[in-house]
Design a protein that fits this description.
- By secondary structure, the protein is α/β, with parallel strands linked by helices.
- It folds into two domains: 2-235, Phosphoenolpyruvate-binding domains (TIM Barrel); 294-538, Spore Coat Polysaccharide Biosynthesis Protein SpsA, Chain A (Alpha-Beta Complex), CATH 3.90.550.10.
- Helix content is 38%, strand content 18%.
- The protein has 18 helices and 21 strands.
- Strands 9, 12, 13, 14, 16, 17, 18, 19 and 20 form a nine-stranded mixed β-sheet that branches.
- Helix 2 (24-32) runs parallel beside helix 4 (60-73) and helix 16 (468-484) crosses helix 17 (500-509).
- The longest helix is centred in the middle third of the chain and has 20 residues, at 236-255.
- It is elongated.
- The structure holds sulfopyruvate and magnesium ion.
């Protein structure tokens, strides 16, 4: 696809401008600067990625790794500077396979021997491989490529090697005959005269490519008039970065402070943008949060409850021990077995007595003046996204959690089919629920302790699941009470009284659905001393 793009550029643009990159980030900057294509410079890759000279000391695999990085970072085509093809035709064949497979649009192969040295090194006067050998490399490359669009550039160093214009032209023709799609004519003269002469005598339609590093004052229109098709700005980005790094490092080292360089360095936000951090965020949302199977759980254990006094005189209810473990530890074990790994606990009364392995603690400092929903929302980080809420005094079976976790609704609460409680253990204010349903499910129509026998058909057990949207419905329904301070708010006469059931009723009244998962067993709560004794009797160890 990128090869076709490169072909189109060669066909349609008067001059194709190519920027030399040394890594993926510089390739990206080249693209953003408006270049047509990227030159994956062997000089740049050796210098920037390994701090090594441009002399075939990097392997093909290492070079390709960098080129792939560049190609992945940009939409424009990448032309890989493949030096001499890393050896003879056998190396060229493998190289073309690998580069083409990696989606690279084109390659350049030069008539240097293996190993080579960069043509720009002072005093360097390469002995080139003979014409036929280079023609063989080109024809091997052309024979290997799978797509007809893959571009093979043959580069001759004849002028740099001092072999003269005739030899340069003769080699270029031989490489063209071998199938080259373009000829890179390299010169290190300080004027473009050689290039002008070469181009003037190049009668073929095969496009010419130049790298004007050593004759930098030449202008694009001049090159265009000469008939040059592709111009490569090969190493200026690398050299600019060396200048900038030296400058800033020196200044920081001298001043000992970062403030001096801050105005000169690219803001972090720009780096974030360049590397696609905003996409990372939206992908988190699209592919992780949305599909995250296990939500985090929040256990609210902040309140002080009179009904169990004096058992809670020196500790909160959640820390009461039942058969060798605290209530909280039992809850944490169950949730973990059900696949919920992240567990947050909101504490308040005797907060310091609350602990369990691996939990995250939040504290509601206002626990004495606020209710459970307030505590729940204190764990702001946990309740922004999908989460499960469990009352701090409810013990449940793993299967109940698993059943709830299968719900895909925005708000789902677990409801126990109501049974008459024994007279010896009346619960002060059960969370009665009335529901309606059809073949698609069951949902709450009314919830609260005010419901009379005959008005309810179940009891809310204190375990609920909220999606991201459900979490936001909960927050907004609670904030209505907390901000407006208009009471009564459903069954609550003041902020401290606001229960989960009041907020759920508010959500139902707003026309949103609170769905129900129904159970017939698998839970009990510890509200009274009698409940606590029962827990000791019934809890399996
Ligand atoms: C490169 O950028 O690696 C090149 C161009 O091959 S030059 O350095 O001029 O040889
Ligand atoms: Mg090179």
């Amino acid at each position: 696809m990128k090869a076709r793009q490169l072909r189109r550029l060669l066909r349609t643009k008067p001059v194709v401008l190519v920027g030399g990159a040394h890594d993926a980030l510089s390739a990206k900057l080249i693209e953003e600067a408006g270049y047509d294509a990227v030159w994956a410079s062997s000089f740049g890759i050796s210098a920037a990625t390994k701090c090594l000279p441009d002399a075939n000391v990097l392997t093909m695999t290492e070079a390709l790794e960098s080129v792939k990085g560049m190609n992945g970072a940009v939409r424009i085509p990448v032309i890989a500077d493949c030096d001499n093809g890393y050896g003879n035709v056998h190396n060229v064949i493998r190289m073309v396979r690998e580069y083409e497979m990696a989606g690279i649009a084109g390659i350049s192969i030069e008539d240097n021997p293996f190993p080579k040295k960069c043509s720009l090194y002072p005093g360097e006067r390469p002995e080139l491989v003979d014409r036929d050998e280079m023609a063989g490399r080109i024809s091997a490359a052309k024979a290997t490529q799978r797509s007809k669009d893959f571009v093979v550039i043959a580069r001759t160093e004849a002028l740099i090697a001092g072999l003269g214009m005739e030899e340069a032209l003769g080699r270029a023709r031989a490489y063209e005959d071998a199938g080259a799609d373009a000829i890179l004519i390299h010169s290190r003269k300080h004027t473009p005269d050689e290039i002008r002469e070469f181009a003037a005598r190049w009668k073929s339609r095969t496009p010419l490519v130049v790298v004007p590093t050593k004759y930098p004052s030449v202008k694009l229109p001049q090159l265009k008039r000469m008939g040059i098709k592709v111009v490569i700005h090969a190493n200026q980005a690398l050299r600019a970065s060396v200048t900038a790094m030296k400058d800033v490092l020196g200044a920081m080292r001298r001043s000992g402070s970062l403030a001096t360089v801050e105005p000169r360095v690219t803001p972090l936000s720009e780096v974030f943008r360049l590397v696609g951090q905003p996409v990372l965020e939206s992908n988190d949302e699209r592919f992780i949060q949305k599909y995250k199977q296990a939500p985090s759980a929040v256990i609210t254990a902040a309140g002080f409850e009179r009904s169990i006094w004096p058992l809670n005189s020196d500790r909160p209810k959640a820390s009461l021990e039942v058969r060798g473990k605290s209530i909280l530890e039992h809850q944490v074990d169950t949730l973990r077995r059900a696949g919920v790994q992240r567990i947050a606990v909101v504490t308040g009364y005797k907060s310091e007595r609350i602990s369990a392995p691996g939990i995250v603690k939040y504290r509601n400092p206002d626990y004495a003046r606020t209710g459970m929903v307030h505590s729940l929302l204190t764990a702001a980080q946990e309740t922004r996204d999908k989460f499960l809420h469990l009352y701090g005094d409810v013990l449940i079976d793993e299967a109940v959690v698993q059943k709830l976790l299968r719900s895909k609704r925005d708000i789902t609460i677990v409801v126990h089919t109501a049974r008459r409680r024994g007279a010896s253990n009346p619960k002060p204010q059960p969370d009665w629920v009335r529901t309606a349903g059809d073949e698609h499910g069951e949902w709450v129509t009314a919830i609260g302790h005010h419901l009379r026998p005959g008005e309810y058909n179940g009891e809310y057990i204190g375990l609920a699941l909220f999606s991201k949207k459900g979490a936001s419905l909960l927050r907004s329904a609670y904030l209505k009470a907390a901000r407006s301070k208009k009471f009564p708010y459903h069954n609550a006469s003041c902020l401290k009284d606001v229960q989960m059931t009041d907020v759920l009723q508010e959500i139902v009244d707003r026309g949103e659905k609170v769905h129900v998962v129904r159970i017939a067993s698998g839970w009990f709560d510890i509200e009274t001393f009698e409940d606590y004794r029962r827990a000791w009797r019934e809890l399996a160890v």
